[in-house]
Design brief:
This protein has helices spanning about 10-25, 35-45, 60-70, 85-95, 105-115, 160-170, 180-185, 195-210, and strands at about 5-10, 25-30, 50-55, 75-80, 100, 135, 140-145, 150, 155, 175, 220, 225-230. It is an alpha/beta fold. The protein has a five-stranded parallel sheet, sandwiched between helices. It has a four-stranded antiparallel sheet with strand order 6-7-8-9, with helices on one face. Strands 10-12-11 form a three-stranded antiparallel sheet. A hairpin with a 2-residue loop joins strand 6 and strand 7. The longest helix is centred in the first third of the chain and has 13 residues, at about 10-25. It is globular, with a radius of gyration of 18 Å. The N and C termini lie far apart (about 45 Å).
Length: about 240
Amino acid sequence: MNTRILLVEDDERLAELTAEYLTKNDMQVSIEPRGDTAEARILAEQPDLVILDVMLPGKDGFEVCRAIRPLYRGVILMLTARDEDFDQILGLEMGADDYIAKPVQPRVLLARIKALLRRLPTAGDAGGNSESESMVFGQFKISQATRTASLNGQTIDLTTAEFDLLWLLASHAGNVLSRDDLLQELRGIGFDGLDRSIDARISRLRKKLNDDPENPTRIKTVRGKGYLFSKHDWN
């Protein structure tokens, strides 16, 4: 069992059932019931993935996510008790890589976890140097091999989900990608007209890329169609 997961969930029965199911699927799962103690544990243990409930004693999941994100390089999957845009967008703004609404079927949770983990770099990833694994646009550089991006020589701090979205957009530079295109590729689901996860991540990326939020030129919004990564405006 190579995949280490920390499940931060205060519902003891739910946590035990979830851990049991994931363990049967070759994952090593530890349980932490409190938000105020989860933070230090995550940073100390650095698990591959954290399943983080929103409603926790001591400190809620949003606070934990915001606190650990700068120092934790693994994946954060948030569990929201309500299928509301507010919870989902706030979690993404705090740095979560993905979210899933409770109650969730174990098989759905497992599928989402596997999809997220597939995007993590492996020991052999850093050795590739083919052009298909890196792109350069003026002063912006992005590498799939090392899963890093830089602008004007400065490394951009990206979550797993932010990197995946940025790489996908850059791979189609000059072309418009709809929300449905992006969701299908990144999460394997279609756009239902309500999901704001792509919009939230675009907003975070624009801030990190020093793109004017009022008049963005690097990641443009094409009204009624989607988003376009510019081939220019990177100097």
